[in-house]
Amino acid sequence: MQLSPYISVYDFLLLSIVLFAIGLFGMLRRKNILMLFLSSEIMLNAINIALVAVGVAFNDMGGQMFALFIIALAASEVAVGLGLVLLWYRKHKSLDIDTLCTMKG
């Protein structure tokens, strides 16, 4: 089933796979906490693209509803995560992920 005469659902799914792979690569390779947040946002947006494309292709609103929930989840992740990152940076003057090993209770 086609979304438009020029772009099919498979094109959107391919874009989603590429974006998810970029985000996963960033999660595995980066040492900066902010880059980890950015990579997780890229991965969540890739999932949103896939859900909306499949939802439109099958004339189902479920994909759009799940995408809205993921957007809300991403917003709460940014709000809480960036607050924690700012506190961490004020205390340790570094955003390197290796310094998190010193968080022993």
Automatic annotation (TrEMBL):
Domain of life of the source: Bacteria
Record flagged with keyword Oxidoreductase: yes
Record's keyword annotation contains Oxidoreductase: yes
Enzyme class at the top of the EC tree: oxidoreductase
Keyword entries, A-Z: Oxidoreductase
Enzyme Commission identifier(s): 1.6.5.9
Protein name: NADH-quinone oxidoreductase subunit NuoK
Species of provenance: Helicobacter zhangjianzhongii
Lineage: Bacteria, Pseudomonadati, Campylobacterota, Epsilonproteobacteria, Campylobacterales
Gene this protein is translated from: nuoK
